[in-house]
């Protein structure tokens, strides 16, 4: 199995929504190819990551851990987790300056699922280097977020986790209005309620910084 620079766990979303996301962003992580890129410059920032909700943020493999062992552990974790039917469904919202699909409010079961994955696979995560920690701008985080960063390698986990599927980069108010007007008709009919989380995806980041689907596992708990 090919080794990648970093690994991550995604929720790819229901198939129809995932298909749209790939076409909008311009990169299909499942097929490892470029798409039409309907979002154009709006999607420049999130393009290389592909359409997804991050469940476990990108991490380097710990010394002594192999990609094959990670796949096996990922399968075991997913086998013990039950699918989630999240209500209310996803809604288009502005968060941290970008447009994304989020839950409002976020169901407790969604946060619990993400926390279980983070805990279950943490042994495969290499510790942050000082440079990696500095890139997270710890001086701008709360004390609780810094503690999460140091414990789990990422500040937006556990009680700070918020499920989101990013569709744009940072937008001005005027650009946001135009993006909403473009996205609204394209998303019509693609946001089921409840929103199903029935499988997760193990992803790998290649040398160019683009993410690829490595393994897909159903939630079978």
UniProtKB/TrEMBL annotation:
Pfam families xrefs: DUF1045 (PF06299)
The protein's name in its UniProt record: Phosphonate metabolism protein
UniProt lineage: Bacteria, Pseudomonadati, Pseudomonadota, Alphaproteobacteria, Rhodobacterales
InterPro entries the record matches: DUF1045
């Amino acid at each position: 199995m090919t080794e990648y620079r970093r690994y991550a766990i995604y929720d790819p979303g229901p198939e129809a929504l995932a298909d749209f996301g790939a076409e909008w962003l311009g990169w299909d992580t499942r097929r490892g190819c470029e798409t039409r890129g309907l979002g154009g410059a709006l999607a420049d920032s999130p393009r290389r990551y592909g359409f997804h909700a991050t469940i476990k943020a990108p991490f380097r493999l710990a010394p002594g851990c192999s990609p094959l062992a990670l796949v096996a552990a990922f399968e075991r974790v997913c086998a013990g987790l039950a699918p989630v039917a999240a209500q209310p469904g996803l809604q288009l919202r502005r968060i941290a300056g970008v447009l994304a699909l989020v839950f409002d409010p976020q169901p407790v079961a969604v946060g619990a699922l993400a926390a279980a994955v983070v805990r279950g696979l943490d042994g495969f995560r290499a510790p942050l280097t000082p440079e990696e920690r500095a890139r997270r701008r710890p001086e701008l985080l709360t004390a609780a977020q810094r503690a999460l960063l140091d414990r789990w390698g990422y500040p937006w986990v556990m009680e700070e986790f918020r499920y989101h599927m990013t569709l744009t980069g940072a937008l001005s108010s005027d650009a946001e209005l135009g993006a909403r007007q473009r996205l609204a008709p394209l998303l019509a009919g693609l946001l089921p309620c409840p929103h199903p989380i029935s499988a997760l995806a193990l992803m790998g980041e290649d040398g160019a910084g683009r993410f690829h689907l490595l393994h897909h596992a159903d939630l079978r708990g």
